[in-house]
Write a structure and sequence with these properties.
Low-confidence stretches: none
Shape: globular
Order of helices and strands: HHHHHHHHHHHHHHHHHHHHH
Number of strands: 0
Mean pLDDT: 89
Helix content: 55-70%
Strand content: under 5%
Length: about 525
């Protein structure tokens, strides 16, 4: 409620002020939001913001001078020299700002993890009292800042000259906490810079509908399933067999409803301001392969890694030389495709958390991607020789089921408190059936009575049906075409579902979004 009331106040001020003041309203609202979250976080955000802005501006000035010098040059050798000198100067600024941003991220997020591992070799007496501030959304705004800096360095776009405009982008309160990881040039094109964004009731209605759907996913589904999952995973030593499997499957649904629900909430709020955030989910559990799954899950992060990690690694001299060494060309292509994938997934695991279980999660998915590359041709030959119909529903259902199972295996690493805990959970899963844990008398012991368990099943079915419909249509557009009575029945049903069946009240942590910790 605090977030929604805050957004409503900023929204009212946003549309009441003149157009030239709208971006200042956003900036003030962003800073108030971040200050309320923790005034001690602001210096970290400010250093990242200022270092990347002024470094990018300096790089832009270097390229402007380069263009002027090149226009006066007729000798190709002289042009080559001018470009080399400009690139060397720009690279210094880029590396400086990049180093500052990455150093802050590493210090804030990974210093304790590093020290704990060092402590295993050398005793550090201060470690018991050591604490490090982890700024809210540091992983998200750091990646957005780095992406902007590299775009300017690679001459994809011109450097921004307005510090206010760049600050609005980096501190924008809907995406600063959990993303999506937006790109500056896409975000800037939607800001009220040249003309006022006027109030439109249709924009407000559709934004509210999306936010309401996000609240349903978060409060009715994710937080209800979270009670069950936590009761099992936090005491996993007491269980074995099928109950751990059930908890893992429910966690896979919980994290999807939690994260996509949050994105829907902030995207709906942002849409009310006339700013569309990047799409971050595209019904990932309908994916037929793991690569497809990761193209549908946390889309903005996947695209960021593709543009700023995968492609640079794939065209590096280190990777290119592997194409020349193997006797068979396909072997070289496999190696050249596998190396950047491994690098990306190791970084992805580390990005999600400073713990060995996240590293194991990254290695697990890197292994799946590499195996998919290695055995792709063999799989195609097997399908052809066995005359398998790969365009029918049963085959697609098998592919989606297989992908979901593989995803659930990875979720054990993701949800477990530590790497040792994840290994223990896997061992206990295969220590017996444990059917007595799921008898009618035992299930309510996991924090949910039968009414809540039934409600969770119904809500999951609703989520599944809506996701299926969204695969083929824009539901909000279709809803707008219906009679007003039908529209209001649907909207009020959503409101009452959240109010009546949502998990909140005394002891509820309203800020406990799963991806907020990353």
């Amino acid at each position: 409620m605090s977030f929604l009331l805050f957004a409503a106040v900023v929204l009212a001020a946003y549309y009441l002020v003149p157009g030239k003041c709208q971006k200042y309203v956003l900036l003030i609202g962003n800073m108030v939001f971040y200050a309320v979250a923790g005034i001690e976080y602001i210096p970290f955000l400010a250093v990242t913001l200022l270092s990347t802005f002024y470094a990018a501006k300096a790089i832009g000035s270097i390229y402007v001078k380069e263009a002027a010098l090149l226009s006066d040059c007729s000798d190709p050798a002289q042009k080559k020299q001018v470009k080399a000198q400009s690139k060397a100067k720009a690279k210094k600024y880029m590396l400086l700002a990049l180093g500052i941003s990455v150093a802050l991220l590493v210090i804030c997020k990974y210093s304790l993890f590093i020290l704990k591992n060092v402590n295993k070799l050398v005793v550090l007496p201060f470690l018991d009292t050591f604490q490090m501030i982890v700024p809210l959304g540091v992983s998200f705004y750091t990646f957005m800042a780095i992406g902007y800096l590299l775009d300017i360095y690679w001459k994809r776009y011109q450097a921004e000259q307005s510090l206010v405009t760049y600050a609005v982008f980096l501190t924008y309160f809907p995406h600063v906490v959990q993303g999506p990881i937006d790109r500056f040039h896409e975000f800037k094109s939607q800001l009220p810079l040249q003309k006022k964004i006027v109030f439109q009731s249709d924009r407000l209605v559709k934004g509210a509908q999306l936010a309401l759907w996000g609240l349903f996913k978060k409060l009715v589904i994710a937080d209800r399933l979270g009670i069950f999952v936590s009761s099992v995973y936090d005491n996993y030593q007491d269980y074995y067999g099928v109950i751990l499997v059930i908890a893992t499957v429910l966690y896979s649904i919980q994290i999807y409803a939690d994260f996509s629900g949050c994105i829907d909430i902030v995207s709906g709020v942002s849409e009310m301001f006339g700013i569309r955030l990047k799409k971050n989910f595209n019904h990932p559990y309908f994916s037929k392969t793991m690569p497809e799954f990761w193209r549908r899950w946390h889309i903005s992060l996947g695209e960021w890694f593709k543009d700023y990690i995968y492609y640079p690694v794939s065209i590096s001299s280190f990777v290119r030389k592997f194409k020349k060494k193997p006797k068979k060309k396909e072997h070289g292509e496999m190696i050249a495709s596998s190396i950047p994938a491994i690098v990306v997934w190791l970084i992805t695991g580390i990005w999600h958390g400073a713990a060995w279980n996240y590293v194991a999660w990254g290695i697990f998915h890197a292994t799946l991607i590499v195996l998919g590359i290695v055995f792709d041709r063999m799989n195609q030959k097997i399908i052809e020789r066995l005359h398998i119909k790969n365009n029918c529903f049963s085959w697609r259902l098998w592919q989606m089921s297989r992908t979901f199972v593989l995803c659930c295996i990875g979720r054990v690493f993701f949800r477990a408190a530590s790497f040792n805990a994840s290994v223990g959970i896997f061992q206990l899963m295969f220590s017996g059936l444990g059917l007595h844990f799921v008898t009618p008398g035992a299930l309510p012991n996991y924090g949910l009575d039968w009414a809540n368990l039934f409600l969770a099943v119904v809500a999951i079915i609703v989520l599944w049906v809506v996701d299926m419909l969204q695969e083929h249509m824009n539901i909000r557009e279709k809803l707008a075409e219906q009679q007003w009575l039908f529209r209001w029945v649907i909207v009020l049903a959503g409101v009452f579902a959240v109010l009546i069946f949502g998990i909140y009240g005394p002891g509820y942590d309203a800020s406990s979004f799963i991806y907020e910790q990353f």
